[in-house]
Amino acid sequence: MDVLLPFLRAFLVGGLLCLIGQALIDLTALTPARILTSYVVAGVVLGALGLYQPLCDWAGAGAAVPLTGFGNAIARGVRQAVAEKGLLGIFSGPFTAASAGLGAAVLFALLVSLLAKPKEK
């Protein structure tokens, strides 16, 4: 049972984040783009306050993979860069912390654009 506990935690936290997002789509007039942006901002704010990292430590990928985890990575990168480089770290920290995710997004977008055959509507 101890082997399955991390998976259960990740499923519960990730599922809860998805449930909140779906409820926001169904019950409010917010657009999906605004909800996604709100998730990133929530991750930044919770990461800056030091509240998101304990959740990531407890839930693993269930908290680290969604957009809130991306916001947390940005906040953590800014904190580290400011500690190392001073005020200029505000500008370089987010890109350094999120470089792997941003690079993967650009690479996969390029691959899909090369492989997909667009159709006119």
Can you walk through the features of this model?
The protein has seven helices and no strands. The mean pLDDT is 89. With 121 residues, it is mainly alpha-helical. The protein has one domain (5-115).
Low-confidence stretches: none
Sum up the overall morphology in one term.
globular
Strand content: under 5%
- Residue share in helix: over 70%
**Residue-averaged pLDDT:** 89
The whole-angstrom Rg is 17 Å
What sequence of helices (H) and strands (E) makes up the elements?
Answer: HHHHHHH
Distance N terminus to C terminus?
A: 51 Å
Number of domains: 1
Number of helices: 7
**Structural class estimated from helices and strands:** mainly alpha
Topology:
Layout: H1 5-27, H2 32-48, H3 52-59, H4 61-64, H5 67-85, H6 89-97, H7 99-115
Gist?
Helices cover 80% and strands 0% of the residues. With 121 residues, it is an all-alpha fold.
List the defining traits of the structure above.
121 residues; mainly alpha
